[in-house]
Amino acid sequence: MSSERAVLKTTEEEITTAEETPVPCFRCGICCTCYQPPLLPEDIESIASALGISSSECISSYALKVPTKEGYLLRKTGRGCVFLSLDEDEKARCAIYPSRPQACREWQPSLSQPACIKGLARLKSKGQLARLNELFRSDEEQRGFYLSLERVLPPHDSG
Question: What number of CA atoms fall less than 13 Å from residue 108's CA on the CB side?
């Protein structure tokens, strides 16, 4: 069994993270454009309730019938999930975030997720450095990112 690794390059060193190292979301929206989550019956009810429509209206407007055990996938548009939108700063936002499907709630951003790696690369392309405050606007999000790295990095020798 192979272990996925992600490499994060800083100005001083190259950091290899362990498989599935969770990180705060970059809000790049790549996962919302690449994947089409299955909809459980409770997901349909939750989305319908949040939108103030019936479950059958929710299915006809926002679901795609498929031959899977769940029976439905969340509909996509040409730019990704039907509920994907962008904030004024071009960060991805879910229009139904509190009522999003279980598959979306269980998604774990990590430096070993192909979508997250692609999103990070898109945020800073052509070899440019990505500054932490460009990835995460709030101090809380930046601290979360640092803490996620501390969980996998060996202690740094400052001597």
Answer: 8
